[in-house]
Amino acid sequence: MVRSKRNQWKKWLVGLAAGSIIGGGWLAARGELVTEVIDGDSFKISNKQTIRLASLDAPAKNLCFGAEATKALTEKIMNKRVVLNDLRTDRYGRIIAQVYINGIHINNFMIKNGFAESTRQAGEETANIKIANDYAREKKAGIFSPDCFQETPPDPECAIKGNLNDRAVNEKYYFTPNCRHYTKVIVKKSFGDDWFCTEAEARKAGFTAAPNCN
């Protein structure tokens, strides 16, 4: 019973948020006007509501390929009307959506061209999102290029891998070459990972030794 009420409450919140940005009828058909692009995966519409592209993460502007991602999204949607589908809300009060413009699936476009990485299920778009991500990774596009996506250090003298845990907030580990899973760790410079020359340097940057390192 408690779970049922919680689910109903969640659906009500999503419906309320969706209703606040989509008036229905002719307005919904026209889409929502984009007035500001924040970065490669979020933007604002005319009522100042923030919309985040669902099923992906794009790098912050100051990280590898972040500026390019922001520019790409800006060129695609700025001052244009977009259609929002599969609406949800996140803990920050943002609307999470699959975004379309003139029949183009923007989420898919950003992933396929290496401006973002897929992160989760995308409803009816799940299969297409996976294909797009696999394509970008195979082509080493954008965030998957050697500049951003690295398994071996550019400088052999600086081989310590600083890695952010994708599944936990603010969990940052570093891996020295003698760590058990060192070779499996990928440095994603687009998402805050980095290389360090010494353990002291890694600790200063806020990373701690990975649990499987002795």
Q: How would you describe this structure to a colleague?
A:
By secondary structure, the protein is α+β, with helices and mostly antiparallel strands. The protein folds into 2 domains: 2-144, OB fold (Dihydrolipoamide Acetyltransferase, E2P); 151-209, no CATH class. It is built from 6 helices and 14 strands. The chain has helices at residues 2-21, 25-30, 66-77, 106-112, 126-139, 199-204, and strands at residues 32-39, 42-45, 50-53, 56-57, 81-89, 95-101, 104-105, 117-118, 149-150, 160-164, 172-175, 187-188, 194-196, 208-209. The chain has a 5-stranded mixed barrel. A 4-stranded mixed beta sheet has the order 13-10-11-14. A hairpin with a 2-residue loop joins strand 6 and strand 7 (104-105).
Q: What's the arrangement of secondary structure elements?
A:
Elements: H1 2-21, H2 25-30, E1 32-39, E2 42-45, E3 50-53, E4 56-57, H3 66-77, E5 81-89, E6 95-101, E7 104-105, H4 106-112, E8 117-118, H5 126-139, E9 149-150, E10 160-164, E11 172-175, E12 187-188, E13 194-196, H6 199-204, E14 208-209
Parallel strand pairs: 3-6, 11-14
Antiparallel strand pairs: 1-2, 1-5, 2-3, 4-8, 5-6, 6-7, 9-12, 10-11, 10-13
Helix pairs in contact: 4-5
Summarize the helix and strand pattern as letters: HHEEEEHEEEHEHEEEEEHE
Bulk shape? elongated
Domain count: the total is 2
Helix content: 25-40%
Q: Can you count the helices? A: 6
Mean pLDDT, rounded to whole units? Answer: 87
Query: What distance lies between the first and last C-alpha atoms, to the nearest angstrom?
Result: 48 Å
The top level CATH class name of the largest domain: Mainly Beta
